[in-house]
Amino acid sequence: MSYSRVGVVTGANKGIGLAIVRQLALQYPKSPLNAGPFLIYLTARDQSRGEAAVNELHNDAQLKQAKALKADGGPSEIKYHQLDITDRKSLQAFADHLKQTHEDGIDLVVNNAGIALDGFDAKLVKTTLDCNYYNTLEASHAFIPLLKSQGRLVNMASIAGLLSKYSDEVRDRFRASKTEADVTRIMEDFTSAVEAGKEKEAGFPSAAYSVSKAGLIGATRAIARAEKEKGSKILVNSCCPGYVNTGMTKGNGPKTPDQGAEMPVKLALHDINGETGTFWSEGQVKEW
């Protein structure tokens, strides 16, 4: 079957990722992107969990009532595909699949996969930055060439990545960063400072997750700038879903996963006035 639109959601077998897939299917028919059959790739590291998530959505009462899915006469179809963004072979295999299967390109990607670990030390910092910063950017670069001319890339960041907890010098470095390499140097300086036990003296908070998300916001801005300079009309943005009741927050968030999905789905499907390189929270552009 041929599809008019193709979307990808990473880390989508549970929590916000699963809700994003669900809301994409629910909102697509009334969105500006609706142009016919819509394929959504629900990706996850584990096949059994990914396929169970697809099955859950196929039996979702609201999706059935809305007749959102193909099986019920709707335009959307959800398929599982294996993807571990921390595994380069897995990422390349999925990118190759997309390129070969969808020769006209894909329309949207929501990079939702990420981690939040307890504690703070050099090893934890490396693990967190590898997934939330380096591997998310590697995934972004794998997907961007596959996006159609007006495609959309959404990177899931967090208001924890805002710059209020940094020294003036580090804050100015972030905001002055023009390229991805500029941001990566800040991440490297943070890592070195943690290894030396002097991250606070260097102007950073002792918080791996927060710094990884600050880096992701900055690098997403840089990617958007680079695309714009090439004349590309791809929209590249980052956003915060809010404090959501998921496993990552240990059930402490006041928002439901569906509420957490609102912001990334808006950036993926709806009219955002051509905004690119911006960070969004609570329905609007947020000053970094």
UniProtKB/TrEMBL annotation:
Gene3D superfamilies: NAD(P)-binding Rossmann-like Domain. InterPro entries: NAD(P)-bd_dom_sf, SDR_fam. Signal peptide: none annotated. Keywords: NADP, Oxidoreductase. One of its GO terms (molecular function) is oxidoreductase activity. SUPFAM superfamilies: NAD(P)-binding Rossmann-fold domains. It comes from the Eukaryota. Belongs to the short-chain dehydrogenases/reductases (SDR) family. This is Carbonyl reductase. It comes from Massarina eburnea CBS 473.64.
